[in-house]
């Protein structure tokens, strides 16, 4: 029985679809369907999505090579979260207010709540990765072992 390892993890394929392929197709479809929209802004978003999404896919693939609890996986996952924030910030236009013109009308979209939601999700994600790292890591030097707990309890009882 031969065991073959996958070259690309399923999580990396999912990230490729959600962060690169689907947003890129959506931006191109918007660009083709609505020629009245300023194409400079759309191309700016496309040029932002491609490199940041590529870096995100690479970070996810590299983190899948390490087991849970390893410091490298933890740091790569934190990098993934930080790059996701940057990717999202670039996708919404690089600011909290998105302004665009369509024909003779100008539209402004205030993204305060979305940015707050993105940052909240990122904080929860970092908290999850930190807890995952702390639970699964092999060297738990900061936690006392069972023998140390019992000797501490016995020594405290003897002092009374």
- Strand percent estimate: 5-15%
Name the average pLDDT. Answer: 83
- Tally of strands: 2
Count the domains. 1
Q: How far apart lie the N and C ends?
A: 63 Å
The description of the largest β-sheet is: 2 strands, antiparallel
Strand order across the largest sheet: 1-2
Helix content: 55-70%
Radius of gyration, in angstroms, nearest whole number: 23 Å
How many H/I helical runs?
Answer: 5
Task: Indicate the topology.
Elements: H1 10-33, H2 39-63, H3 71-91, E1 97-102, E2 105-110, H4 112-136, H5 146-159
In short, what is this structure?
The chain is mostly helical and 160 residues long. It has five helices and two strands.
Task: Supply the key terms.
5 helices, 160 residues, elongated
What does this structure look like?
The protein has 160 residues and is mainly alpha-helical. The chain has one domain (10-159). The chain has five helices and two strands. The chain has helices at residues 10-33, 39-63, 71-91, 112-136, 146-159; strands at residues 97-102, 105-110. The protein has a two-stranded antiparallel sheet with strand order 1-2. Strand 1 and strand 2 (105-110) form a beta hairpin. Helix 1 (10-33) packs antiparallel against helix 2, helix 2 (39-63) runs antiparallel to helix 3 (71-91) and helix 3 runs antiparallel to helix 4. The chain is elongated and about 65 Å long. It starts with 9 loop residues before the first helix and ends with a helix. The model has no long low-confidence stretch (mean pLDDT 83).
């Amino acid at each position: 029985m031969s065991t073959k390892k996958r070259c690309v993890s399923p999580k990396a394929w999912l990230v490729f679809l959600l962060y690169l392929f689907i947003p890129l197709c959506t931006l191109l479809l918007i660009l083709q369907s609505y020629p009245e929209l300023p194409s400079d802004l759309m191309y700016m978003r496309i040029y932002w999505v491609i490199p940041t999404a590529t870096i995100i896919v690479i970070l996810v693939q590299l983190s899948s090579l390490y087991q849970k609890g390893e410091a490298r996986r933890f740091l790569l996952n934190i990098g993934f979260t930080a790059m996701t924030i940057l990717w999202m910030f670039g996708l919404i236009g690089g600011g909290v207010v998105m302004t665009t013109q369509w024909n003779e009308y100008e539209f402004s979209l205030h993204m305060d709540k979305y940015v707050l939601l993105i940052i909240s999700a990122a904080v929860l994600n970092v908290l999850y990765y930190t807890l995952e790292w702390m639970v699964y890591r092999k060297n738990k030097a900061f936690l006392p072992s069972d023998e140390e707990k019992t000797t501490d309890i016995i020594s405290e009882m003897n002092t009374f």
